[in-house]
Amino acid sequence: MRSLLFLALIAGAAVAQDDPKLAVAEPARDEIDSSTFISRAVFADGKLWVLADNGELSSITPGATTREFAQLPEPPVDICRTPTGVAALTCSGTRCSSWTLRRRIDGQWNTGEVIATRGEPLVALHCDGSSGLIVSTRRAIDVSKPQSALRFSRAISKDLVAATHVTKEYIFVGLNAGEWGGGLTRIDRRTGRVEVIEKKLGDGACKEPLDAACDPVNAIVDAPDKPGCVLVAIGLVHFLAHGRIVEVCGRDVRTVYSRTFKFNVENEEMANLENEEAFFGLAAAGTQRIAVGVAGLYRFSGAPQPLISPLPEFKVVDGICVNFDQSDVALVLTTINRRRSVSGNTPLLVLR
How far apart are CA 4 and CA 25, in angstroms? Predict the structure, then answer.
């Protein structure tokens, strides 16, 4: 029964009863290249750059019918956007003995800093201006100082990382363990102290607003008008949809938005099941915060309620599903969450 609800949600047959316009407009499964798991996507140089976790880096120009594949001397393990375009961190050697930071400037890839991995798996590459921060499972390496490193108080799990966000004081790491939660980890950039940030109101399992045992964290952005605070997108589809958006200020956590709905399907028992919106992406566009969930696109502009629009139709470009209809964000579907849950194809939100 729940499996049928999941298939309806993913295939686009389900419509929210309280708003008939909220349909999940996702392409059919046979249109998706399920072997391509997109781990990162950025918009730079007028193109959407997508990195699969098998090391395949390609770009899609809006309106194009094919992808362009990047030619790099080594496989890229992460990408980020810079003021001049896009940067890629590549890995050399069969055991990845070193990383090389390569910046794309005027259509050419330039070789930059080389950093020894010390056998540590990469968590994320963060670009801020002309500098770069490499986060491994045990260190944060600032390549501009030169290569000053902060060692963490304990190792973090690379395999569960779904999102990272860097502020002046902290490195936030969102973890996604599927039906087993994930939660939010925070690293102090002054001391390297690693701590889990959560808050559970009430006793028992799976309590809001943020429970590491139940809540996968998929995206993190700065909170508007609150320096040092962040917004966190929680989302999981494991037969039913589950999630919310929470605000984290220091150790205080509160829910800032959640929504429940039912799907209009023929099966009466399924139609009576209540779902929570599961959020998979967040982006900061000026003072506006944009979120994407399984049932639509949400725009928060300071009003009590967001402006909600249905997910657009996606175009398949060489096996990658994309949409460029929005002027400020692009959407791309990834199948990477299939490793952790039955969430199928989930949307990534990319700031243009």
Answer: 17
